[in-house]
Fold this sequence. Notes:
The chain is of the alpha+beta class.
Amino acid sequence: MDVDPPFPQTYKTLLEKTRKGATDHKDVDIIEECELPLIDLGRLNLKNLEKEKCETEIARASQEWGFFQVVNHGISREILDKMRSEQVKVFKQPFIEKSKEENFLNFSRGTYRWGTPTATCLKQLSWSEAFHIPLSEIQVSNGFSTALSSTMEQFATTVTNLAQKLAEILAEKFGCKSDFIKENCLSSTCYLRMNRYPPCPIPSEVFGLMPHTDSDFLTILHQDEVGGLQLVKDGKWFAVKPNSEALIINIGDLFQAWSNDVYKSVDHRVVTNPRVERFSTAYFFCPSYDTVIQSCYEPSVYRKFSFKEYRQQVQEDVQKLGYKIGLPRFLV
């Protein structure tokens, strides 16, 4: 049976080690399901007291969970449905087309990614494929599908507005000027990532996306109803119950460092499913590479660093170790 992408052929050695009983298995945890804090952003348009309560809930969830979900977020159901539809069409293209160096979408080299080339064991393998796209490359005139391009453009524009609004609230809640975010996180510095998680024949052995934290300020996720996202809270893994009406927001490493650990960037992962494929679209709210991250408070938990330096350190660790270390590298 052919699999797209060709995981069985490419990772044959790692898979055979498992069949022979190698002790490289993922721990089998009993995972409790949780509902993330649900925040109605429509309350931000109401009178002062209700608006203040809404902002406080956003900050509290970012401190206690590092994750929350929002409704009445300003992105229409029409845009979300179109995004999903166009995304599915892209992933249904043959693997040989998707994986061309200059792929059929005319994106730059490295946009299409799948698996984990650096994996040395199954726990480092992500059973998924993705298009990781700088917003600067989303142009109708770029030569690829007009429907896909215009949909991504609509999605990115509305989600950027949401990210700016949430980041401004969070900055003000811990006493830093939100101008820093406005000046450094531009539409040209952010990314979209369209994800597909194919059915996996060994779901107890392989992650769809291995445990990690996000290297940005904020991530905004639109996922389908399949489920599979899990996160750490109080030292335990929890499965996030899907909510088709909500977008998921999570705090990234840069917000944790900038807020001096007030807000938490927590480990999360995606588990595989043996029968059903899963789709999601993630928006990464990132600054320019030369942006310097320095805590507003003293004493600072982390030394100051540029986003470029941070990204390079993450990439270096993944190449050498097979996984990301992240913020602990930058402790004072």
